[in-house]
Amino acid sequence: MIKKYFTTFSTTLSETYTYRAQTLVWVLNSIAWVAVFPFVWLTVYGQRESIAGFERAALFTYFFLVPTIDIFINSWVYESMQHMIKDGSVVNYVQKPINYIGYMFSRARGWQTSQTVITILISGVLYLFLHPYLAFPAPNWQLLWFIPVAAVGIMVAFLFGTIIGLISFFTTEGGWLKHFWWMLTTIASGYLIPIQFFPSGLQHILSFTPFPLILQTPIFTLLNRMSVSEIVFQLFVGLIWIIGLSVAVYALWHNGSKRFDSIGI
Amino acid sequence: MKQYLRVFTQLIKNSISMLTAYRADLLMRVLIGFGWSAASIITIEIIFLHTQELSGWGKSDMILLLFTFALTVDLLSNLGKGIEDLEDLIRLGTFDTIITKPIDSQFYTVFRQPNIAGLLYFVAHQLPFVIILILYPTNISWHFLPVYILFIILSNILWLSLKTIFITMNFWWQNVGNIHFLLFSIAEIGKYPMTIFPYLMQFVFYTILPIGFLAVVPSSTLLGIFSWTSLVGMISITFLFFFLSRILWQKAVREYSSASG
After folding, report:
1. Is residue A145 part of a domain?
2. CB-closest option in A32, A36, A197 to B46
């Protein structure tokens, strides 16, 4: 049962080796996108050591981790799903004895695993130059919370991505939805600024959404900036969202694949 | 020249008629235009919750910078959206149909699919910035407006040239069809004052990768910080990168071997 998904995962890993230059460009793209923010915030800090309870080194470390965590957890599965639905190739998976959603998940993890490895390698090189500005906590057992936090984050991001992808069954104009999702995650996940810098009311509202789980919560867990009760609360919120999103994915796939017409030769 | 103008007008007309086929998408793009400016404004608001100025730039100055940045990267670039499909054209062999046309291949590749929906997105994106600048005006030196307009024209050409140079690389590096996304990400740097960066990076952003000229130089001018050096620099860099994009394109087309059978 699991073997076919593992095979898909390992096949995708080999595929990324074939497209290694493209993979490298995507990784550099993710790094370049956030590269400006440490400079912006260091200017804001000026002579101050701390803002909103965030020390200068901690903030620099936060942005240092953003590309790796983003590539590892976030999901761009909607790109290929929209493409497959539009060009009709999704029909191949309706007939095959493999669950389409599971197949896409295995593929996404394959791509993201190789991209994460490249990001870690590049970050490792950057670490050699930047380590005086970074502040990682000493290893401790609380870091193990990263495993469930990352797992929930991955599921949330994947399910949202799948919903955006599957909506293409019902509309030919899905580009806007993708942009809307980018926009929302950019603000609400903590890409531009950690949510801790937001006004407290907004922080409170966002803590009930799944967005922090995609970026800020995993990074904060690694940086030991969250208490166990805060992590557990975020995991609980994430699990509720996973249930709701799974139901939505099931309904979209079930109805979408039913109304999908294909004419073969 | 007249022929190119006629072709361009026709391409614009075609694009407008395409709009009617994707009406819902168009409406959503307008909403997303508002949304992205909201995202930028929220970012600026949060930054300025913790500081009075960013390297000498006040909150309204930063809004002007964002407005100028969009004016630079979303205007001519949307009309020249066709260049972004170059990798597909080469891979599928359809670039052959372009080089056999009795028109400059670079002109046609760049301008063959003007993105009118993108221009509407641009208008929606700019509107909140304009409203904020009216409500919270900054110290604009209106007598520099003609120079600002000249800089905007030049920086539009500069941005399109940079984009063309990056995408032209697809002729040689077919396996990095996504390279222009890297340029888009690097260009984000242009939304912030260059003085927040170390000197070496500032040097790079005013020479090798002249992101600093896209929005910071025009905005500074409108804020009254004008120097002849920036005018000469802007003109020289724009022409340099424009001609570089021409030379590179011509070399690429000479070396291009068709992918079709």
Report:
1. yes
2. A197
